[in-house]
Each structure stands twice: as C-alpha cells, then as structure tokens.
Amino acid sequence: MATRITRKEEAYNRLKSAIISGEVGPGEKLSENDLSASMSISRTPIREAFRQLQMEGYITVISNRGAFVSKLPTDEIEEIYDIISILEGYAAELATKNLIDSNLDKLKNLQQKLLLCATEKRYRDYVEKNTEFHRFITEMSGNLNLAKTVTELRSRVFRYRFTSVTIPGFLDKYAGDHDRIIEAIRQRDHARARKYMTAHVLFVKEVLVSFLRDQGGN
Question: In degrees rounded to 5, what are phi and psi of residue 216?
C-alpha cells in the first residue's frame, strides 16, 4: 500500500518542481497566500515547505519582504556546468561502447523532435526534449551512479535552461552539436563523442553565463 504524503510534502514537491522547471523564475516572489489558494493547502504546510526549500538553497527568505526563488551566482553556475561537461563527456564515451541500434534510433528520433520544437519556437517543449536527449545518453553509459549525479547537478541549474534556449541565434549551433555527438556515437568513436559532448556543454555554459552577466548577474 502506497504511503500517503503529508500536505507539507505535497507543497514542497510542487514548489520544488515549479522552481526546477522554470515555471517560477529566479528572483520571483513566492506568496504564501497565493500558493495556499492555488494549491488548496493551508499556509502552515506552505511555510514548512519554504523552510526546507530555504535549507536546500532553492529559495531565499528575507525578513519583512518574503520568500524569493534563489538566484545562483554566475560563478556557481559556471562551476556546475564545468562538472557536467566532464561527466557528460565521459557518459558519451561510455555510450559508444554500449551502443545498440535501438538506442541510436531513439537518439535520432529525439533530435528530430528537438529540431521541430526549435522550428516552431516551442521553447518549453524544446527544453523538455533536450533534457531527455542528454539524460538518455547518460543512461546509455550504463553507469547508474554517473547518470544519477548528472541528473542531480542539472536539477540545480535547470531553472536557467529555458533562458539558455531563448537567447537568439544559438539553437542552430546546439542542433549541430547534437548531430556531431550522434554521429560520433554511431561510429563508436569514443574520443570524438567525449570531445563533442564536453565542448557542447561548455558552449551552452558560456552563452548562458554571458547573457546573465549582461543582465546584471553576479
């Protein structure tokens, strides 16, 4: 029999999901009253969820002002992407060694869906499919701890993913990177798969961090 979650856990899960998905953006204020009404949950569980999210760094509570979605310092964003680039590069290398035809077909299918989302400017769908593309390559590595670690790291910067894909002029570059990664995996070229994935993640980092700094980020 499934364990029933508490109202505090429900509020926590829904708020964390909204932050990670970018539904509520960095710096956005969170109103206890509004959340209580929209979730049909009393203010006490909302307040308890706030405390847990604050301890985990997802929100910042300022006395006499309220709760806000935390903004990550750009230096921290850079550090996280640097680590992801190393781990996903290694995952792409391992994926070439564990390659089966059905996995390659799925990667190509995901890429086609990404291109369609980009053409139709469905950016939220693009973010979802892009996340699936990268997650699938880490799963293809066959290293479950590696895949789990990358997922945890990506969840910390996911709130900025929507920003990164809506910056004009870069979706074609992202798509080209994916094509090169897929081709290297298809050819079972371990070194190129690792090189292309690492470079791709680092390029996304540079685009995002440059944009955030131009917008006044730290």
Answer: 100, 15
- Which residues does residue 69 pair with via DSSP β-bridges, in sequence order? 59
- Residue 133, helix vs strand vs coil: helix
Domain covering 7-69, topology:
Arc Repressor Mutant, subunit A (1.10.10)
CB-count burial class (<10 Å; 0-12, 13-18, 19+) for 51: middle
Four-point Cα dihedral 47, 49, 55, 59, nearest 10: -80
Residues 6+ apart with CB under 8 A from 129: 110, 113, 114, 117
Cα separation of 109 and 19, whole Å?
Answer: 28
Q: Give CA–CA dist 4/6, Å, rounded.
A: 7
- Which helix (H) or strand (E) is 148 found in, with range? helix 144-157
Reference 156, options 19, 14, 13; nearest CA is 19
Task: Provide the pLDDT confidence category of residue 113 given band limits of 50, 70 and 90.
Answer: very high
pLDDT(90) > 60: yes
Confidence of residue 52 (pLDDT cuts 50, 70, 90): very high
- 74-214: CATH topology is Four Helix Bundle (Hemerythrin (Met), subunit A) (1.20.120)
Structure-token pair, residue 137 = 């390559």
User: Residue 218: its pLDDT value, please?
Assistant: 58
